[in-house]
Model the fold of this input.
Amino acid sequence: MVPGKARPGIALFGVFILFITGLAQADPLPPRADRVVDYHIGVKLDPFTRRLAGTERVTWRNPSTEPVSDLWFHLYLNAFKNTRSTFFKESGGQLRQDRAAKDSWGWIDVTSLKVAGGADLTGALTFEHPDDDNAFDQTVARLVLPEPVAAGGSITLEIAFTAALPQVFARTGFKHDFYLVGQWFPKLGVYEPAGMRGRTSGAWNCHQFHASSEFYADYGTFKVEMTVPSNYVLGATGVRTAEKSNGDGTTTYTHEQADVHDFAWTVDPDYTVVKGTFSATRDVTPAEYRQVARLLGRSLEDVMLSDVEVTALVQPGHLPQAQRHIDSAKAAIKWFGLWYGRYPFKTLTVVDPAPGAGGAGGMEYPTFITAGTSFLMNRWPFDRVRGPEMVIYHEFGHNFWYGLTGSNEFEEAWLDEGINSYSTGKVIDLVHGADRGMAELLGLRIGEADTLRAINRPQAKYNRILARAWDYVPQGVYGFYSYQKPEMMLRTLEGYLGAETMARVMRAFHERWRFRHPRSEDFFAVANEVSGQDLTWFFDQVVRGAGVLDYDIGSAVTRPVPVARGVFDGTAGRQTVSQEDARRKEVAAEKGKEQTWETTVVVRRSGEVYFPVEVAFKFAGKPVERQNWDGKAPTQTFRFQRAEKLEWVDVDPDRKIALDASWSNNGRRITPDARVSTAWTTRWLFMAQNFIVWLGL
Ligand SMILES: [Zn+2]
Done:
């Protein structure tokens, strides 16, 4: 499919709208979350001390059928409190090419806490460290309640807190007058009742803040009042419902949003506010709606989107890229929405972090994402290096994968990062072209699949996709196993199931788990159900298992069938064929082109993972023929006796198996051919990729 450039006429659209509203099918997407938490927070930013002073009134509803006697909170900012926090020990003060600034610490203190209308319980808070034995870590706190919360009952707490923000590092903090305020308030963990995510008994799931992990929280409503200097431009999760000047040089902005599990905000006096609207009727053509409905086997009403107000907060040095930011956000709203289900929120805010605040870039919060670019991208030759686009597609995608399907990012990062990388790659391929989606630079083209190829290695077999984020050894491979390997795994699955079945698997998974907390088994179950086959063999090997998938050609020999020599007993009696006789016949056959050729090809499974493969054979002057192999045995030998000799053989000729750790060993050419020279292209690709990494995208 190609993104819509043609705009439908108004009359045509009228007919179209009549048609879709005439369908009475129910929306399979749940309209709202089962709201477990309700936050009402007031916070004031002091720009001189870089501190926050906040009050939080939080109501928690016990979603289980048993009384619950304690509450667990995240106090993430304490990850930046000192070098003894688990986050610091794991990261060494370095994350995503970014370093913690010297002597710039972040922390959060709960200064008062009580059950609404009750006694002060601040002293009863204890720091917990459920993931390690680090008694110095203060990122998780627990409160044993004076009385348990009854099944289905609720409790309201009144909390006061102060927090210090670090210089921007690992998603949050300040740089000059720029602030990205994320993970800043006492946030409840998730109480998982028996039966949820495989639990046999109910318990809180509240992990410490780690270097390589993100978040997990419950759905509910947020109302946040932020008081900041009046000359600052503010952006935040949700819809602005009030704005009040306080007459003292500060302004209070109120934002509200339901059915989300987190809240972030930003201020900077230098932002230029650029607005755009994603229009469900102007930005998607009727043909595109029909195409997607057909692909998914759904009604037009099911795939209908809704309008979204897009706000980009752009740094002055990046203004030439303002439209790129808006267009990328709109493309993401469109394709994620069409494929997985309508984006249900009214707003999306895209933040362009200040120069030097790269650590705040490339991060996602509900209805609020941070992008990241460089002034280099303003003009040729980098204007088609799609760093900003890629980041915006990806971070917006998290509004689906983790935002709307609230998987546990600590324990199963692939469910958000991996599925989201796969989805992002599909948007890049579709909008910009599979062969050039990532970059077009000085005649060089790099597609999403090229970057995956460059990163896959036959040696990458010591970790599993399904692992807790802080358990990877070494920690640095978290990215490969949480982003790229799952992306290749899902691309491989798509090649195996076909585009239509795969699209329906993804759609069904999203619909079924929107506003809920899926785990890996839930994805596997949906894939099995929708595809109508048991794919356990696949997921066991490549998600639960550590093995590598790699097929290669062990040998390929094509040679004339020799005339038999020796003594033969036939109907005409005993005959002897001498060496000389045989050779004469062979030369005659060669001259008369009546030679018979014997071809033997050995294909090898050189990785641990088996996967059904196709093998293509090209004999001289004949069309390509294909044979299937279940790929299970260590080797498979293919033998032919033909009048033609073999020219080349190729395993997985359509390159459908994205997980194959090395494509360079898939083919073997018997006769030399000009088309073999790919070495230069490959070298160029690597150089270009290194350059992009160097730019820090
Ligand atoms: Zn991500």
Notes: The pocket of zinc ion is lined by residues 394, 398, 417, 420 (CB under 6 Å). The CA atoms of residues 109 and 598 lie 79 Å apart.
